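Memo to structure team: turn this sequence into structure tokens by end of day. - J.P.
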Amino acid sequence: MSSDHVQPAGRFAGAAEGPSGRAQAPSARAEAPSGRAEVESGRAEMPSARAEGPSGRAEAPSGRVEVPSVSAETPFLELLARGASADAYEQPVLLARAEGRPAEWIDALQRAKPLALRVRAELEGRRRREAELSALFETAHDLAGLRDLDAVLQAIVQRARSLLGTDVAYLSLNDPERGDTYMRVTEGSVAARFQQLRLGMGEGLGGLVAQTARPYVTDDYFKDDRFQHTLTIDAGVRDEGLVAILGVPLTLGHHVIGVLFAADRRARVFEREQIALLGSFAALAAAAIDTANLLAETRSALAGLERANEIIQDRSGVIERASEVHDRLAELVLRGGGVHDVAAAVSEILDGTVEFAEATAAPAVALEASRADGHAVRHEDDWIAAVAAGGELLGALVLRGHPGLDPVDQRTLERAAMVTSLLLLARRSAAEAEQRVRGELLDDLLDARDRDPRLLRERAARLDADLDAVHVVLAARLEDGAADADQEADARRRLAAAASHLAATRHGLAAARDGGTVLLLPLGPGDTATDLARTAARQLGTAVHAPVTVGASAPAEDLSTRPDTVATAYAEARRCLDALGLLGRSGDGAAAEDFGFLGLLLAGDRDIPGFVDRTIGDVVAYDRRRGTELVRTLDAYFACGMSPARTKDELHVHVNTVAQRLERVGRLLGDDWQSPARVLEIQLALRLHRLSAPARH
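Reply from structure team:
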């Protein structure tokens, strides 16, 4: 027998041969715990050194044979040590049979194999549990240093998806104000409609979890009738291609505030341990939300205490300053001071910097709040007091870098804003005459009635306008439909007044025309026609308290020497204005360059290859380099209503393949590639790409 031949435990590896040639064993044997056969009577100890006999076997000097120390468990221990797969545990038995080992040895291997597999399963379970506990520890660590609630919730969802090995994980929260549930965080989702789902209370699997405050799992969502199906929810789930879904509640006390989900795009049975793990993540998510709410309440309470302390400390000095400001403002009005004189006086009294800002230059939200409430409003470290006349915003007084404003000082700023509005109204009558003159000059430029360049320049110079500068023509229209003719006429008058004020402040011209307003404004350094259009839309809309849409022409020159220049530019601005209306962008401002290929039509240019390259060039180049089918997948995705589930049927691929391709498209085109505006341009670029493909080849 060769020296590496292994015998099963409990038998001699070799025996002394008798005269008959058979292996003679002692007359009586007993198996010791170590697996060696021991002789009951006349037994001799096995020597520590072996000698090779004539037969090639290891023999002791007295002819006794040493029993090998290898046991049936050894090959399985080696498999456990190197982390072999479960299938590999069949190999020792198969190998023993192939080598013709004794039946006792094979039986010992077969008895050891299930024990080894049990040990392997136990080790795998402990490794998995260690990974789960590590992820829970990391999440708890994130929660302990909570700074950004969204980041913590995103980490929880990502870790839940990774550890459970699901295609998608997501978290929804209840909205008490609207009485429904909305998606807060998603991971692995590619369907836009699914990510924007809002569900009524009690609807879908999440509704069942919220009602019972218990986890629920479904192996096949669409075949499960335990919960209420709705068209909206089913459509979103179908778009995402989900089949098996597990949901666990997020609870604060006895109240369910949301649901944490893990889902697969194939049938799957979730194990009890996986349900418990997702429940642990849900508990951490609920704790994160509760902690964020408590932090917000604490910060608010601390701010209130600090504010009260400041008021108490500064009360006496504030009263003295209030008396001083009353005398100073009265003096300014009597001697005919201006807006900037008022700002300088209040700066000195409040020991800060007070500036007058145009309505468009002040923070829009704070300015509107101040106008509606009649009081100064804090914005970051500044205070904003609206300067208004009737329903028109004329500007604002802004107190810079003074967050801790005493109530009396706040009232001082508000009185200064009232004085400023009175001073502006005093100048309104003179300004109206100037506005009429500006309108007449612009009408002459539009109608080309006065063709003498010298006279046009002189008239413009008297209005502080320069016709030799580069200008942009803006066509503005009020979008808020009036209930009757009188209200509509009043709205148009307010728009014309606001446009005239804007033109005067920017050294331009304005006039009422075609049911709206036309402006001629100079193009400043670094500005574009788009910048002017959007600024005008925002300023005019703020002034009239209604959406105002503004279309802009391309920059125009030689206004005085070429009488038709202004009229041509106005026609282009009107086309842009109409295009904004057709695209549903009321209240916005834009020039032809902002409309993609449509803008090329508006401006009379035709740069189709450039448009396609700017829009989907990265995707086309990726396909060309890698031999992929991202462009074809995009075509099918839009043709199937942006549903990954229907797209995979069209392409005859798995839904995960569609999801992976769309994720790659998102990395190439940007996260907002599925927004309505981008979708329109991408679909147009795809069609133009297909039409121009033969020419490329």
